[in-house]
Amino acid sequence: MYANASRVVARRAFSTTRARLSSPYHYPEGPRGNLPFNPKSKSFPFTFWGICAVGFAAPFGIAVWQTYKPKA
């Protein structure tokens, strides 16, 4: 019984989608063509780190505001 099961498992083939041969990327526009923003712009690092800072600080700011909010 176990010998049969091991043969079935050994025959099982894992596969992925075949790569496009026309381009080394999975989309025709090339690298970074699928992003909704332009990481090559001059303002990108400031915008990126600004969004990261606001996203990290917001929960702490909300917690402080909730702590010091007058009780109704």
From TrEMBL:
Domain of life according to the entry: Eukaryota
Species assigned in the record: Pseudallescheria apiosperma
Record GO cellular component, one term: mitochondrial inner membrane
Membrane topology term: Single-pass membrane protein
Entry's localization field: Mitochondrion inner membrane
Similarity annotation: Belongs to the cytochrome c oxidase VIIc family.
Main location: mitochondrion
Keywords assigned by UniProt, alphabetized: Membrane, Mitochondrion, Mitochondrion inner membrane, Transit peptide, Transmembrane, Transmembrane helix
Residue ranges crossing the lipid bilayer per the database entry: 46-65
Subunit structure: Component of the cytochrome c oxidase (complex IV, CIV), a multisubunit enzyme composed of a catalytic core of 3 subunits and several supernumerary subunits. The complex exists as a monomer or a dimer and forms supercomplexes (SCs) in the inner mitochondrial membrane with ubiquinol-cytochrome c oxidoreductase (cytochrome b-c1 complex, complex III, CIII).
Metabolic or biological pathway, per its Swiss-Prot or TrEMBL entry: Energy metabolism; oxidative phosphorylation
An annotated GO BP: mitochondrial electron transport, cytochrome c to oxygen
Keyword Electron transport carried by entry: no
Name of this protein: Cytochrome c oxidase subunit 8, mitochondrial
Pfam families xrefs: COX7C (PF02935)
Function, as annotated: Component of the cytochrome c oxidase, the last enzyme in the mitochondrial electron transport chain which drives oxidative phosphorylation. The respiratory chain contains 3 multisubunit complexes succinate dehydrogenase (complex II, CII), ubiquinol-cytochrome c oxidoreductase (cytochrome b-c1 complex, complex III, CIII) and cytochrome c oxidase (complex IV, CIV), that cooperate to transfer electrons derived from NADH and succinate to molecular oxygen, creating an electrochemical gradient over the inner membrane that drives transmembrane transport and the ATP synthase.
